Amino acid sequence: MTGNSVDNTTRDIAGTTALSRTPGRWLHHWDAEDTVQWKSAGRAIAKRNLAWSIACEFLGFVVWQLWSIVVVFLPGAGFTFSSAELFWLISIPSLVGATLRIPYTFMVAKFGGRNWTIISALLLLIPTLGMAWCLGNPDTPFSTMLAVAALAGLGGGNFASSMANITYFYPVREKGWALGLNAAGGNLGAAVAQFMVPLAVALLAAGTVGLPLAGLMWVPLILIAAWGAWKYMDNLASAKSDVAGSLASLREPHLWILALLYIGTFGSFIGFAAVFPKLIMDSFGTGVGIAIGPAVISLAFLGALIGSLARPFGGRLADRWGGARVTVACFGVLAVTALAQLSTLPLNSFPIFLLLFLLLFAAAGAGNGSTYRMIPLVFALRASTGTDGRMSATRKGSAALGIISAIGAYGGFVVPQVLNASRQATGGYEGAFMGFVAAYLVLMALTWAVYLRPSSATSLGHV
C-alpha cells in the first residue's frame, strides 16, 4: 500500500473486508481494532493523519493565543486602551473558543475529518488577517479590536474536532498515546506564539509597522497546513456523531464533577498562559526577558511550554498511580504555589515570581493530563458497578471527553477576568491569588471525597 492509495479488491487473511477508497479520500471499512488491517495498512494511515492533525491543531492554538502576547505591544504602538480593555482582548478568544468546541466536536462526522481539518485550518486566516488589519492603525476602535480578538476563538475550537477525528483512527490500546501527542502538540502552539511574535515584531520591523506581522507571519504556515490536510489526510466513512451519547452523558453527575476538575487544571493552564505576558509587564515592565538584538523576548512562553510538556507526564503518572491521586496532588501543588505567590508578590522579585509560576504551570499541565485520563475510567467503572444505565460506558465516556474539554476551556476566560477584577478593585493581584488558593483547595477536597475517600458512596476506587 502507498501513502495515497488503498487496494480496493484485496481482503486480509482473516477474511474481513479490505479498506477501499472513494473520491474525496473517503476510506471505507476502517476498523482500527482489526489487528490484521492495522498492521498491514492502518497504522501508516493513522500516523499520517495524526501528523497533519497535530500541525493544524498547533496552528489553532497559536492563533488562539496570539492576543495574549500582542497586548503587551499595544501601549508602545500608540493604542490607548485601558488595562481592563486589554484583559478583555486576552480573555475573549478563550470564551469564544470554549463555546465553539461543542459544535466542532460534531463537525468531523458531518463533513469528514479531512474535510473539516481543511476548513477549520483555512478559517484561521480570518483572525490572522483581521489582526494584521487592526494592528496597522492605532486609531482602531476597541469594539473592532474586540470583535477581531473574538475571532481568534476559531483556533480554540480546533482542539475538539481534532481530538474527535484522531480517536476514530486508533485502537483502544494506542488511543491514549495518540490523543496525548495530539493534545500536547496543540498546546505547544501557545508557547511558540509567545516566543515568535516578539521576534517578528521587533527584529523584522518596528512600532506600528511591525505589529501587523504578529498575524501575517502565520498565514503561509496556515496555507501549508491546509494543503497538507488536503493532500495527505483521509475521511472515514465509519465516523458517526453520537448525539444520543452526548445527551446521555449530560445527565451523568460525574460529567459535571470532572468538568469542574478540568476547569481547575486545563482552565488554569490556558488562562494563565494567556495572561502571563501581561502579568509580567504589569509587575516588572517590558524590559524583562531575553535580549536578542533590539528584541526583548518575554519569558512568558516558558509557562505554556512547561505546561504543555507536563501534560503527557501527568497522564503517565495517572496510568501508574491513578488519575484521582495525581489530580489531588496537582491541586495541592497549585494551592501551595498560589499561596507562595501571594506571599512573595510584595518582594517584587522576578526570579521568585517566574519560578513559582513555572511550578504552577507544571502542576496545571500534569493535572490536565491526569484529569483527562480519569474521564473514560470513571464511566467504565460506573458501568461495572451497575450505575451507568443501559448505554455503554464507551459511548458515554467518548461523548463526555468533548463536552468536558469545552467546559474546561472556559477557565481561559475566567482566570484573566478574575485577575482583572482584582486589579480594578484593589490595584493589585493579591485578591485574585487568594481566590485561586481557595478554589484549588475546594477542588482537591472534591476529588478526594468523590474518587478516593473509601467511605464515600460515590467513590470509584482506583480511578
Describe it for me?
The chain has 18 helices and five strands. The chain has helices spanning 35-73, 83-111, 113-123, 125-135, 142-151, 153-169, 172-204, 207-210, 213-216, 219-232, 243-250, 253-284, 301-321, 323-344, 350-384, 393-409, 411-426, 430-451; strands at 20-22, 26-28, 235-236, 290-292, 295-297.
Q: What is the first-to-last residue Cα distance?
A: 41 Å
**CATH C-level label of the largest domain:** Mainly Alpha
The third-level CATH topology of the largest domain is Growth Hormone, Chain: A
Structural class: mainly alpha
Largest sheet: 3 strands, mixed
Task: Give the count of helical stretches.
Answer: 18
| CATH architect. name of the largest domain | Up-down Bundle
- The percent range for helix content is over 70%
Estimated share of beta-strand residues: under 5%
Widest β-sheet, arrangement of strands: 1-2-3
Number of domains: 2
Q: What's the average pLDDT?
A: 86
Which properties best describe this structure?
single chain; 463 residues; mainly alpha; Growth Hormone, Chain: A; 2 domains; three-stranded mixed sheet; two-stranded antiparallel sheet; 5 strands; 3% strand; globular; disordered N terminus
